[in-house]
Design goal:
The protein has 382 residues and is an alpha/beta fold. The protein has 14 helices and 10 strands. Strand 1, helix 1 and strand 2 form a beta-alpha-beta unit.
């Protein structure tokens, strides 16, 4: 699936930049173009993989280039005042050769949560392809008063109109027991970018890319992301078994340049595929609430080509079917020569029973001093 990527704010820009870098490292690049928009000059300067001409600083009059400090209203005002500049930034995203667009943002951020939905709306005016929001939920460690929760829920509601679906990622899944959320961002950026790359690259066969054993078509991904509820990702990876007695790199890595043909223990590799799939759906879910409620799902296995065994992919698919409400899990693989790992990415969609969102809604109510039914269903994911 060929994707145009729009990163908004610090979190969105970092994930977009990491995705472009990852695609550049591989032989498979599903990103047609990437654009980053921010109100903070320092955060924008941290980008390195996105082309310099596609990094846009906006709102300098309103913010002085120092960001919105969490003020989503200020970001919306920037969007109103910078319409021409923002439309020019979006013009860099090629429409004719793009299957879908990703708008990536931190939902509790001022720029990401305020400007992100505005940019998604502008994009929806000029493209017919589906637009998917990738939203990062805030950590409880940085939200003692509940204002981050309130901003995140507001941004989630705003994204739902222009977006065909919203993929949620919870920062607390990377924070662990560390109260300093800053230490979690680098790992989150890489893991989310890897999952997005594996999903988008599963259908790519152009540009000399290795041919998948089982292709996950673009239409299958689009049909999985149909918009009811919310979606999330899960990803895990483990080191492939090696035949080297000294514990060196797997044969496939040495064989990348034609030095040898990998000696594959099919039983061990199939077992690794099933183990990695179980890890993904039971402990490495990006939203943290599991995938049992998912009405639709897809799975992608990535590894050097010789380790992508039909039996392993079928076993992985069966595990996801058993763990979700999906009656037909779509599956594919992505040959990835420059690695000694086997990775599994799961897309779970149609989630409507999401305890994490219930908790954020509760914190929002407390912060706003509202009764549970003051907004009716306004904060739900239905």
């Amino acid at each position: 699936m060929r994707v145009g990527v729009l990163g908004v704010g610090r979190a969105g820009g970092a994930i977009a930049d990491t995705l472009v870098a990852l695609a550049d490292e591989s032989r498979v690049d599903p990103v047609t173009e990437a654009v980053v928009v921010d109100t903070d000059d320092d955060d924008l300067a941290a980008a390195s993989a996105v082309a310099a001409e596609h990094r846009h600083l906006v709102g300098q009059v309103e913010t002085g280039g120092h960001g919105t400090a969490g003020d989503q209203e200020a970001a919306v005002a920037v969007a109103r005042d910078a319409q021409a500049e923002l439309r020019a930034a979006l013009d860099a995203l090629p429409v004719s050769r793009t299957d879908a667009f990703l708008v990536v943002a931190g939902l509790s951020g001022g720029t990401g949560g305020g400007l992100g939905p505005c940019l998604a709306e502008l994009l929806a005016e000029v493209v017919e392809q589906p637009i998917y929001a990738v939203g990062v939920l805030p950590s409880d460690a940085e939200d003692e008063g509940g204002d981050h929760a309130a901003r995140a829920m507001r941004a989630l509601r705003a994204f739902r109109e222009p977006a065909a679906d919203v993929l949620l990622v919870d920062l607390d899944r990377w924070r662990g027991s560390d109260a300093d959320v800053e230490t979690a961002y680098d790992a989150l950026d890489r893991d989310v970018a890897e999952a997005l790359w594996a999903l988008a690259a599963a259908s790519e066969t152009s540009g000399g890319a290795p041919t998948p054993e089982r292709t996950l078509d673009t239409s299958e991904i689009i049909n999985t992301l149909r918009g009811d509820g919310v979606a999330t990702l899960a990803r895990a990876r483990n080191t492939l078994p090696t035949s080297d007695e000294d514990g060196g790199l797997v044969d496939s890595v040495r064989g990348l340049f034609g030095d040898s043909t990998p000696d594959v223990d099919e039983v061990a590799v199939t077992r690794l595929a099933t183990t990695t799939t179980r890890e993904a759906i039971h402990s490495k879910t990006f939203l943290g609430d599991g995938v049992a409620d998912a009405g639709r799902a897809a799975v992608v296995v990535d590894a050097p080509g010789a380790y992508l065994l039909r039996e392993g992919i079928e076993e992985a698919t069966g595990i996801v079917e058993d763990a979700t409400d999906s009656v037909a899990v779509r599956a594919g693989d992505r040959p990835r020569p420059r690695t000694d790992d086997l990775g599994v990415t799961v897309l779970a969609a149609g989630l409507t029973d999401v305890p994490r969102l219930d908790e954020l809604e509760r914190r929002t109510r407390e912060y706003l001093g509202e009764a549970p039914d003051d907004h009716g269903d306004d904060l739900t994911v239905e």
